[in-house]
Amino acid sequence: MRLFKHLNYDFMAKRNIFYIVSLALFIFGVINILFRGLEFGIDFRGGSEIVLQFDNAIKIEQVRDNVNKIGLGTVEVKTFGGSTGVLIRTELQQIPTELFPRVASEVQEFLKEKLGEQSATQTTSTGGSVTYKFATADAANNAVQALNDAGFQAGRVAFEADNTEVLVRVGISDWIKINLRDKITNNNFDILREDRVGPKVGDELRRDAMLAVILSLVGILIYLGFRFKFLFAIGAVVALFHDALITLGFYAILYGVIPGLNLEIDLTVVAAFLTLIGYSINDTVVVFDRIREVIKIHKGEKLEKLMNESISATMSRTVLTGGTTLLTVVILLIFGGEVLRAFSFTLFFGIIIGTYSSIFVAAALVLDWAIMFKNKVEF
Predict the structure, then answer these.
(1) Is 240 in the same domain as 259?
(2) How does pLDDT run across 301-337, given as a tens digit for each residue?
(3) What residue numbers bound the domain in which 255 lies?
(4) Is residue 378 part of a domain?
(5) Rg of the chain taking only CA atoms, in angstroms
(6) Same domain, 280 and 344
(7) Quick check: 45 and 66 in contact, CB under 8 A?
């Protein structure tokens, strides 16, 4: 299938207009990044992320109101993958010290309710666990079973037959469960996931992510310098920076403006940016390849005319490839749920901007450089 069979459009004549468009998008994005900032996910800033799965549809406001009252500081609560899933994020990695006595008391009340006369005595507690002592080994074993059935992480302190102590791990998810169990009735839920990332690990991940993007751009610069003239490599890498920074600017521009697009930068988004860089450079290489072929055939023609012919010849391939990819990404953006939204959003805008930059940034910069320094482009 071939579209635009006889296309003969003067793309390069419009390059100054698109320089202005790109510059405006770039400046607007940078201003928003500087003054509004970017929201980083738990991967980079550290904290805890808990996913709840309810049996039936839940009103997110009901969960949010209850979680905001349990002493975990600033908490983000939103739907996750559907009307029965809830994602809770907090910058805390463990329950605050002042809350821990209340948590231990709640666990003890739970044990009393389940075991009756076999109630426990608290012996020790740390930042993330409580130890209870029971009168008999059988009572300790029954407590471990009851706690694990209720979703707590509990085990015997020792494996001897006469062991009477039980260690209960109490994390943020357990505190949430204790509080929501009595507030939300007739709709049971499970903790699907609890992830914790320390601030030091988050800083390391952020540094490694930036390094991965920079090294990928350097690698592309070297590769294109060998495959084409170095001038083409510079134009392509500038276009990649253009794509990445404008797409990143959209994160800052749209955050808090459009419901559902309050997106955070996490490792999934970094993967999307690396995918975007690969897609964009592939499109640019196709255009450059055709330009090289045409220049070899028509050595005496003006470079601007040859570039227009080359871009026109590749337009059918560009539209068909980009269109089918965008169709897939749009479906992913609409139906992929909360987990894949940031990834698909990055690819959606990135593919559009990457296709645009292959023509109006990468190729246009090569042309202007050749005109400015009166360099004859030959292969």
Answers:
(1) yes
(2) 787 888 888 888 888 888 888 888 888 888 888 887 7
(3) 12-41+199-372
(4) no
(5) 29
(6) yes
(7) no
What lies within 8 Å, CB to CB, of 182 at 6+ separation is none
Whether the Cβ atoms of residue 108 and residue 154 lie closer than 8 Å to each other: no
Q: Are residues 365 and 254 in the same domain?
A: yes
Structural domain contains residue 176? no
| Number of residues assigned to the chain | 379
Q: Kindly state whether residue 1 falls inside one of the protein's structural domains.
A: no
Count of structural domains, the chain: 3
322 close to 346: Cβ distance less than 8 angstroms: no
Buried b / exposed e along 307-346 (16+ C-beta atoms within 10 A): bbbbbbbbbebbeebbeeebeebeebbeebeeebbbbbbb
Question: Would residue 2 count as lying in a domain?
Answer: no
Residue-by-residue DSSP string for 107-139:
HHHHHHHHHGGG--EEEEE-SSEEEEE-SSHHH
Q: In which residue ranges of the chain is pLDDT below 50?
A: none
Nearest-angstrom CA–CA distance, 263 and 266: 9
pTM, entire model:
0.69
Model pLDDT, residue 125: 64
Q: Report which DSSP code applies to 92.
A: -
Same-domain status, 211 and 358: yes
Give long-range contacts, CB 8 A cutoff, 24+ apart: 123-126: 123/165, 125/100
User: What's the pLDDT tens digit per position in 8-31?
Assistant: 777 888 888 888 988 898 898 888
Yes or no: say if 46 and 199 are a contact pair by the CB < 8 Å rule.
yes
8 Å CB contact between 3 and 355: no
Cβ-based burial of 259 (10 A; exposed 0-12, middle 13-18, buried ≥19): exposed
State whether 329 and 362 are in the same domain: yes
**CB of 166 closer than 8 Å to CB of 147:** yes
Q: Which CATH number characterizes residue 25's domain? A: 1.20.1640.10
Whether residue 145 is found in the same domain as residue 24:
no
The CA distance from 211 to 231, in Å, is 24
- Cα angle at 79 between 73 and 81, to 5 degrees? 135
Residues 246 and 273 both lie in one domain: yes
